[in-house]
Specification:
- The complex is a heterodimer of chains A (560) and B (167).
- With 560 residues, chain A is mainly α.
- Chain A has 21 helices and 2 strands.
- Chain A has helices at residues 2-14, 17-35, 41-48, 57-81, 91-102, 106-141, 144-161, 166-181, 206-224, 243-265, 272-285, 298-321, 327-338, 346-350, 352-382, 388-407, 410-428, 433-456, 468-491, 496-504, 539-542, and strands at 183-184, 191-192.
- In chain A, strands 1-2 form a two-stranded antiparallel ribbon.
- In chain A, α5 runs antiparallel to α12.
- The N and C termini of chain A lie far apart (58 Å).
- The relative contact order of chain A is 0.17.
- Chain B has 167 residues and is mainly alpha-helical.
- Chain B has 5 helices and no strands.
- Chain B has helices spanning 4-32, 48-69, 90-110, 112-126, 134-153.
- The longest helix of chain B has 29 residues, at 4-32.
- Chain B is flat, with a radius of gyration of 24 Å.
- Classes of the chains: A mainly alpha (560), B mainly alpha (167).
- The interface between A and B is large, with 98 and 93 residues.
């Protein structure tokens, strides 16, 4: 049990007062940004990347990990109290969570979300600690060809599985890869896409790219469409739940965890799919299927557990292979690179203390989050009232600090603005931003592995699939790429996820892309979705703001 | 069925295709001028990946154009504070870009505490905040406190400007 002693050492590091402080700061910040609209954990870690210039790596990663976990807790608060989930992983929580809140059960919804997140985080982190050393052992044996195949799988899977339009995902990935090419080629010293501009020779700093796409892009995008009248917040008290609620929640928590962790650990599982699957599973297994759509607690407990478990799962490939599969992990990987730490299997050997302190601090952070979230739920909910001008002005403000501090150069600020405008355009035209970020960060690493592979094989293309593992991964890639065809063949045109989504009442796929999703309305609320949103001024919104006594919703009459 | 804004929307999305194609061409042209003969180490030189990415961009541009012409369009990103039911508010965006550029111009001249405050106030104004006393005070307080934490506490290089001796 070498891992156990490593983990105990990690606890010893994490339990120093200073590191406990960073963990606490991380989870507080994480919960806050999870609750706050428009800002998520990936953006926050990106904004805090400049701290890597002044902070020791252990402290920084303890804080970043706290932000990552905290963001997952905070996201549920928004989905439950506002009917407008910001992140795809909390869309499902909003379905039952917001219904519970409308029926005066906000406290129970928040409690089952927080405790479910805790259970999932605890089990997920334990699995991470148990599995990581074994995966590292395997990973140390694999070569450049395998790495290249795994990275290719991450690219393809992140792009093809997430989002509603594959072609737009690939467009985003290609933009990211292009940004990653800028600068001097590491192996030959040739300039690529620098156009003779000396500031581009070192490449665009990843801080500038991440902050530009996440922070500036998001702030400009929201500014262009700022809701004139803030959405209604359902007031809540301290989060608590009854014995009966517990009885109905514990199985969904465990099932959600079982679904979420493997999806997070696989390249590009993401948190979105397991939350959908968890919802549908709970609906099928529930003894009260009639409550679904009207605030069934199982529909909050399962998906919330699964998105936290998937967050823990994401850290497995991140720490063992240096393979980020979501936006936050990608930015954390960038932070490793900032410190000159080589992510990958050697991480556990060379930076064992740091990694185990990080894992230990995840246990601590998870406990802190439970303590923070149960009694303080009303306090967090008040963050939702933050005046929007200050919120988005603040995002711009901190974004400029991040970009400027890279080189103390205003050129970086101009590049930041250009990338921000790119991020704006991507949001406007439905290009998902995650593939772009993964492309920027993973692209150069994948190129390195590919060139190594060819060096080893003397230019023979078959060198790419020279190992059994690489062969297996290329088969998986082919299945992922051809999945639309395969599923059409096997399931006679019914996309299984579309089926899942239909059952959950959420539009996931828009096969022809001709239906504009109403911005904040994933829940079947009886309102027809606006087909031509830009042509129709705020009138359409009025329907949504009608008093709750409407009886024409599919859920039937609501209690007074 | 297809009202004017809808058709315009479809057409503007073709612009994304054009941009991707232009980017692809740019990457390919740039790759073609990288000398590969003598600098190359190993069988794959520095131009190989740009060539692949450039071709991919061109192919994606074609497929995206095909998708748009067949009536598909990207789903604008939703969010808690995003209301897609009214058209883009370009005035706010331009004012924000203005506040951003003001900071770019000012930061090396008057230092971060002042330029940052200008940025925050300007951005808050652009976003509709009209508290003429509270806004600048919050901006200045945020800017100064942030400067002290980042520059003094964490040693991150932010220019103090004329306030060098004061702060």
């Amino acid at each position: 049990m070498e891992a156990l002693s490593d983990l105990l050492n990690g606890f010893a590091t994490a339990f120093t007062p200073v590191n406990l402080g960073w963990a606490a700061l991380g989870v507080i910040l994480g919960t806050a940004v999870g609750v706050l609209p428009g800002i998520g954990p990936a953006m926050t870690v990106a904004l805090l990347l400049p701290l890597t210039y002044g902070l020791d790596p252990t402290a920084a990663f303890i804080m970043f990990a706290g932000i990552f976990y905290g963001g997952m807790y905070g996201g549920s608060t928004t989905s439950i109290l506002l009917n407008t989930p910001g992140e795809s992983s909390s869309v499902v929580t909003a379905i039952e969570g917001n219904q519970m809140a409308k029926r005066g059960r906000a406290a129970q919804a928040l409690a089952t979300a927080a405790i479910g997140s805790f259970v999932a985080g605890l089990i997920g982190t334990m699995l991470l600690a148990l599995l990581a050393p074994y995966i590292v052992k395997v990973a140390l044996e694999i070569g450049a060809a395998d790495y290249f195949a795994i990275m290719l799988l991450a690219f393809i899977a992140v792009t093809a599985v997430l989002g509603s339009s594959r072609i737009r995902g690939f467009a985003s990935l290609a933009i990211g890869l292009t940004l990653g090419l800028i600068g001097i080629d590491q192996q030959t010293g040739q300039q690529r896409l620098t156009f003779g501009i000396p500031q581009l020779a070192d490449g665009i700093d990843v801080v500038v790219v991440a902050v530009g796409i996440f922070a500036i892009g998001e702030a400009l995008w929201v500014a262009a469409h700022l809701r004139r009248r803030p959405a209604d917040i359902i007031p809540t008290g301290r989060a608590f739940m009854s014995r009966e609620d517990f009885r109905r929640s514990w199985k969904p928590w465990l099932r959600g965890t079982a679904l979420g962790f493997p999806f997070g650990a696989l390249p590009a599982g993401g948190a979105e799919i397991p939350t959908f699957l968890s919802y549908v599973t709970e609906k099928r297994l529930s003894k009260h299927p009639e409550e679904f759509g009207k605030g069934a607690i199982e529909g909050v407990a399962g998906p919330e557990a699964s998105n936290n478990a998937s967050a823990a799962g994401t850290l497995v490939p991140m720490l063992t292979l240096g393979l980020p599969t979501n936006a936050t992990a990608a930015v954390m990987l960038a932070a490793f690179v900032q410190y000159g730490i080589q992510p990958g299997p050697l991480l556990f050997e060379r930076e064992g203390d740091l990694v185990w302190a990080l894992i230990a601090s995840l246990f601590i952070g998870n406990l802190l989050l439970l303590v923070l979230n149960l009694p303080l739920a009303p306090l967090w909910a008040r963050l939702l009232k933050t005046p929007r001008p200050y919120l988005y002005a603040g995002i711009l403000f901190f974004a400029t600090i991040g970009a400027y501090s890279v080189n103390a150069s205003t050129i970086d600020l101009i590049i930041l603005l250009v990338i921000g405008l790119l991020g704006f355009a991507m949001r406007r035209y439905g290009l998902p931003v995650v593939p772009a970020i993964i492309g920027v960060i993973l692209g150069p690493r994948a190129e390195l592995q590919m060139r190594r592979t060819f060096q080893l094989s003397n230019g023979e293309i078959s060198g790419l699939w020279s190992t059994p593992l690489a062969k297996l991964i290329y088969i998986i890639i082919a299945i992922v790429l051809l999945w639309p065809l395969i599923s059409r063949f096997l399931l006679r045109g019914r996309h299984p996820l579309a089926e899942v989504a239909a059952e959950a009442g959420v539009p996931l796929e828009h096969p022809e892309g001709d239906e504009q999703r109403a911005p904040d309305q994933p829940v079947a609320d009886g309102e027809p979705r606006s087909r031509v949103p830009e042509a129709e001024p705020p009138k359409e919104r009025a329907g949504r703001d009608r008093p709750e006594s409407r009886t024409d919703t599919p859920d039937g009459p609501r209690p007074p | 069925m297809s009202s004017l804004p809808e058709r315009l929307r479809g057409r503007s999305e073709l612009g994304v295709s054009v941009l991707l194609a232009a980017l692809g061409a740019l990457v390919l042209i740039d790759a073609s001028r990288i000398p590969t003969d003598f600098t190359q180490r190993g069988p794959v030189g520095p131009a190989a990946v740009p060539a692949v990415v450039g071709v991919a961009l061109l192919v994606i541009a074609v497929f995206l154009a095909r998708d748009v012409l067949r009536g598909g369009h990207g789903e604008a990103e939703a969010g808690e504070d995003v209301d897609l039911s009214h058209p883009s508010d370009w005035r706010t965006v331009l004012l924000l870009v203005g506040a951003f550029l003001a900071n770019v111009v000012l930061i090396d001249r008057v230092g971060f505490p002042i330029s940052g405050a200008v940025l925050f106030w300007g951005a808050a104004y652009a976003l509709g905040s009209r508290h003429f006393l509270r806004d600048p005070l919050i901006a200045l307080a945020l800017s100064v406190v942030t400067y002290l934490i980042f520059a003094r506490g964490l040693g991150i290089g932010l220019p103090a400007g004329p306030l060098e001796g004061v702060l």
